[in-house]
Amino acid sequence: MAPQLDAERWERLELKQQAVETLRGNDRGGYTVPTGTGLYPAQWNWDSCFAALDFAQFDEPRAVTEIETLFGGQWPDGMVPHILFHGDDSSYFPNASVWQAGPAWRSSGITQPLVAATVVRQLFDCASDPAIRARLTALVPKLAAWHRWCYAARDPHDTGLVSIIHPWESGMDNSPLWDDALNAVEPGPPVAHLRKDTGFAAADHRPTAPEYDRYINLVIRFRDNGYRADRLYDIAPFRVADIGFNAILQRANQDLRSLLAATGDIASAAEVAAMEEKTGAAIARCWHEEDRFFYGVDTRTGKIIRKPGISGLLPLFADAEVAARHPSLVERLESWLARVAYGVPSFEPERPEFEPQRYWRGPVWLIVNWMLINGLRRNGCPDLAARIRCDSLALVERMGFAEYFNPLTGEPLGGSGFSWTAAIYLHFLAGRE
Ligand code: DGY
């Protein structure tokens, strides 16, 4: 028995080293690409934040640099773009020359889930070096500006729920949650021949051609409107208040408020507390009593998006009491886990829209597992959190640092040598979740 345990421990040590090497290998000097394969040759907003989370374990200054570089691309109105193009982006479509966005045309013109405050708070709470704390403190007003932008630009009617105007803003690009709203968008000219992603990843792991035609038509629409935040909300043909995006924002509000208080900006902390209060109340209203699940809403049509996606579980990440109020939410998660070999699938298994290989239509994503584990622990569900942690470690140990995984077979999918998978693996090994 003992030699086997040693072998396992040895294997884990080797993998830990490989995870560090994966992050180092994807480091382009000041920012990290999601994968070194060419699939994503730029800095992606939430990928970068998750990379920073674990750079902190072996190189704290480098972790802070990652976030500083990201905020170096912040727009004057406070928006932090979902992609920053720093170098050769010719292996990606749509690259900087298509977006033509940002002060120097070096970014996309939309945003991504606001996880940065949550990551900065983790870095801040762990940092003992005053120089690191000073650098993190300098980021706090920038984080606050991004949150303010988000409410002003995406919740102009002050409902407490912010809207995304492109599926890419959710980070969960082709989730079945967007199907109806996206189908209502004009496809625009076909772009299949311009796509580069399918040269790096199998086409059946990626979004479809009709989805891409619409993704790009939305980009063109926003570009034609000069990416003006005061216009896009009204003219966007796709507009959805996603429960997952809002839950991540709500958690980030809590972390931002704590950072503001710790750094002495009491007035801004009170302002963020008000954001938190209205978003907390709005998320609570998204509970569907009949289906016993959280749903977002299409804010163009007013229709509830009545589909069980992983977004609907993310209030666990935002609210430490949601499991006590709605135990059936946790039971639902357990029922998903009972139907797969590895949790957590990104869409409810056995539904007609569930596709275990295709991007956000079913596969497991370790960053989502991290959010759920963190939320389950705060909600007093340590056993379920441990089960998901165990699945996550097993996936990496058997299949490597893939972008995402098939929940039925564990098959590695999408890009390989993936930064955020390596980062979350390291995070789990350190027991920091
Ligand atoms: C892609 O290109 O697949 C990205 O997810 C868009 O952000």
Q: Which helices and strands occur, and which strands form pairs?
A:
Layout lengths: L1 H24 L17 E2 H14 L1 H13 L10 E2 L11 H4 L16 H11 L3 H25 L12 H4 L8 H5 L25 H16 L4 H7 L4 E2 L1 H20 L3 H20 L1 E2 L4 E2 L2 E2 L16 H4 L3 H4 L1 H11 L28 H13 L3 H18 L4 E2 L6 E2 L5 H11 L4
Antiparallel strand pairs: 1-2, 3-6, 4-5, 7-8
Architecture overview:
The protein is mainly alpha-helical and 433 residues long. It is built from 18 helices and eight strands. Strands 1-2 form a two-stranded antiparallel ribbon. It has a two-stranded antiparallel sheet with strand order 3-6. A hairpin with a 6-residue loop joins β7 and β8 (412-413). α5 (116-126) runs parallel beside α11 and α16 (366-378) runs antiparallel to α17 (382-399). The protein starts with a helix and ends with a helix. 54% of the residues are buried.
Mean pLDDT: 96
Rg estimate, integer Å = 20 Å
The side-by-side strand order for the widest beta sheet comes to 1-2
> Strand-residue fraction?
under 5%
How far the N terminus sits from the C terminus, by CA atoms, comes to 29 Å
Which descriptor suits the 3D outline? Answer: globular
Low-confidence stretches: none
| Major β-sheet annotation | 2 strands, antiparallel
- Bound heterogens, unique: (2R)-2,3-dihydroxypropanoic acid
Secondary-structure element order, as H and E?
HEHHEHHHHHHHEHHEEEHHHHHEEH
Number of strands: 8
Give a short overview.
The chain is built from 18 helices and eight strands. The protein has helices at residues 2-25, 45-58, 60-72, 96-99, 116-126, 130-154, 167-170, 179-183, 209-224, 229-235, 243-262, 266-285, 315-318, 322-325, 327-337, 366-378, 382-399, 419-429; strands at 43-44, 83-84, 240-241, 287-288, 293-294, 297-298, 404-405, 412-413.
